[in-house]
Amino acid sequence: MANLADPRRLWADGKAIDVHGVAVTRLTAGPAPTTLAAAGQGVIEVLGVESETTLVRLDVPLDGAVGFWHPAAGWDRHLTADWMATGLRTVGLVDSAPLGCLYDDAGRAVLAFASDRLVHTTRLRFGVGERAGRFGVWLAMDLGPGELCRIRIAPPGGTVAETVRSLVRRQSGTAALPVPEAGRVPAYSTWYSYHQEVSATAIEAEAELAAELGCGLLILDDGWQRGAYGGSYAGCGDWEPDPEKFPDFGAHVETVHGLGLKYLAWIAPLLLGDDSAARDRLAAFAPHARPEWRCHVLDPRHEEVRRFVVDTCVRLVDRYGLDGLKIDFLDAAMVYAEDSTRREEGTRSGGGVAPAEDARPEGGAGPAEGVRPENGAGREDRANLEDHANPEDRGRPEDGGDVGESMRVLLTELRDGLMAVRGAELMIELRQPYTGPGMLEFGNLLRAGDCPADAAGNRVRTLDLSVAGRESAVHSDMLMWDPQASPQVAARQLLSVLHAVPQISVPLAQLPAAQRAMAGFWLAFWREHRDVLTRGALDAGRPDGLHPVVIARDATRAVVVHHVSDHAATLDPTRFAEIAVVNNTGAERVLLDLTHPAAVRLDVRDACGTPVRSETACLDPGPRWLAVPPSGLCLIRPA
């Protein structure tokens, strides 16, 4: 049997068919892939046999391919070789998704695919075959006898965003968790402001200022719970408010509600702290240690763990009047999928991906004071491909079974329990990488992974979330900036994520007046343009270009954000009643490439919203420099 860890065998011959110019080859025992009867659907079916791991290859000639996008791509958007570790992933419900798009230098899809296995674990490999001169994607799946996997191949030629959105719409057959209004307004988060040094007094003061700036949601991050100190997770597991920080947590939540803000609290329900009282009774269900975090990871394949997580979360929301939860580190459960892979590779006649390095906090170090671990790897699993999908087995998982299926059961019970308390107003924040299509029924606020003060990283991560669909509320990572910086420099953190829901995380009481004016101006701009920014069509260019210019548009308005100097935004000024041009650079001008002439009025403001000039102009077709201050705005309207 072909081994996914051995690239020399990945290009072996097998039973193959052609779908939209993509060769689909079964490399293991069993019948050849087949296409669904309806012509032009691009859906293939792969049938499981006996108990072997099923290995399928999708490949195309290299031709003009320049990059490969997938939900957990991060900065790795180049053409990796098939022997490189960057092309190895294990995906499942709580980490990434079996989804990807190879594209050319025009940003057009060459090979785009999505599997219906959004719950159960899939092991992926992708990369350039040096000898074959082709790009391949390999999917290793533990299909039972008679079990079907369906893989959709998109027609080539569409943009990456259009193609991926089309695949995602067909990938999940379940309804997404509705987003209440409070999930689509600016939020204030305590993490970068206070880390674990939170208190009722400090947070209530910040909440009042946040409400004045136009925030409608407060997110209390790590630190509220008993035993939260020193940057570690040693106290996780008991989930009781620290009585010194929050003498009456329920009254505190009520006070914040009285300011007009909804309230979410952070929880990492799969982390079992070494100092927690729950450690003694749950230790048997948490064999995997994270010594650098001073905790263990609970194994969701045990019913006792699932019951503990659901009961804890529902009790917390119900007892203290919370509007929902910020649920962290769900991807930590994938360590048990990796353990299973290691065991299987020693007993099967071939099989799995060579396990990647242990997931580490971003930056590679353990959590010092103020450093937030980020547990990343890459997984996601099973859903439906329209009405042709293979129905999930909805039975309860056995102990020691598939991690994805266990997490699906846990999250279903958790969602249902929380909705019984909060109904349609419930908010659940999920964080990359567990934000794929299979998770949309379990969370409605999808947040970019941690990237403190990294404006480019925040831009890329939120666009990766947005590219798969605009129905959920995509949130930025918490925004922090230097309180001593100029308002123009500080504004770049916020302007980098205008296409998402911003989460502010700076001590508002300590902001200089100029920075507060800047934040107030741009949050007001965001609220006025929210629908076009978060629900309009997005044009962000090639993924490997890291989106130097982002254009959001609807039928009447467009917002153009220049993130890199000297990159032109192509526009038809006659199509819109208003074009908002945002200069998110340190330059004094931006470049437009106009397709039609137009007589317009230009209203220019600086980073704090102060008027700079107002004039009429006749804009000729072609490239044109437009004077806009750094972190400033120009509104273009018909004259």
UniProtKB/TrEMBL annotation:
Xref: InterPro entries: Aldolase_TIM, Alpha-glycosidase_related, GH, Glyco_hydro_36
Top enzyme category: hydrolase
Bias type Basic and acidic residues, positions: 377-399
Keywords: Glycosidase, Hydrolase
Keyword tRNA processing: no
The UniProt record lists the keyword Hydrolase: yes
EC number(s) recorded for this UniProt protein: 3.2.1.22
Molecular-function GO terms, alphabetical: alpha-galactosidase activity
Region of interest (Disordered), residue spans: 339-404
Protein name in UniProt: Alpha-galactosidase
Lineage start: Bacteria, Bacillati, Actinomycetota, Actinomycetes, Streptosporangiales
